[in-house]
Amino acid sequence: MECLCSMDTMYFLMKSDKKVKTDQKKSGGMDWKKAVFIIVGVLFVVTMIGSSLGTGWLVGMKTIQPGDSVVVEYTLRDSDGRAALTATERIYTSAYENGELVWYTGPLSLIANATAPEMIVPVPAFRDDYGEADFALFGQEQNQIAARLTGMKQGETQRIALTGTDQYRQEITGETFDEMGGNFSAAGIGDQFPLAFMTSVLENEDDTTTVKYALRIASVTGKTDQNISFSYGYPVADISIVQFTSS
User: Fold this and answer.
1) Whose CA is closest to 244, among 118, 156, 171?
2) Whole-prediction pTM value?
3) Residue 193: how many CA atoms within 13 Å on its side-chain side?
């Protein structure tokens, strides 16, 4: 058998002493009646497959547009790559067992390209050794995540480099650090500790005041004989699209 290939078709020529019918020569050896049945059969199979899949396969082709409602599974990571807040159970379990101050939360519901009016967005979180608490998600972090949703598809993942995290650094005296509940003498570079942020003040009917807090995980970035520096910004957010609804 000799194979001659062109850009459009592939022909197979077989040596034979038998004569070939004239109509087959004109058609390149193809029986067009059979070809019609083959084409119809292929179309039938494709139709049956499409019917069995329904319209669900179309969801995977749609992309998020501004204004769409999106449910996002996310993980915020510090400058050392450690998870501080995550909605992924596997990541939480691994980090927790490794002794890291990670918190577990649920997926985040966002509007693509929308901005949060609050500076701090308290999100419910949990730790096995602590219980429930509010975690302080910064509005700036939420806004940057929401801005990157457009064009993504359901099930797609993305790593986002969050900007502006340098402003979440602070240097204080060792004395102030101890007053905050830390241990200046024992603290070392990379150590983690919880940092509380006031989110609201409620005046009660009995003239008492209730202050609500949300926490973040800070890490020590520098230390001298007198002062200690720490960061509570997270430069990385890993996100995954759980589902979305078009606006």
Assistant:
1) 156
2) 0.75
3) 20
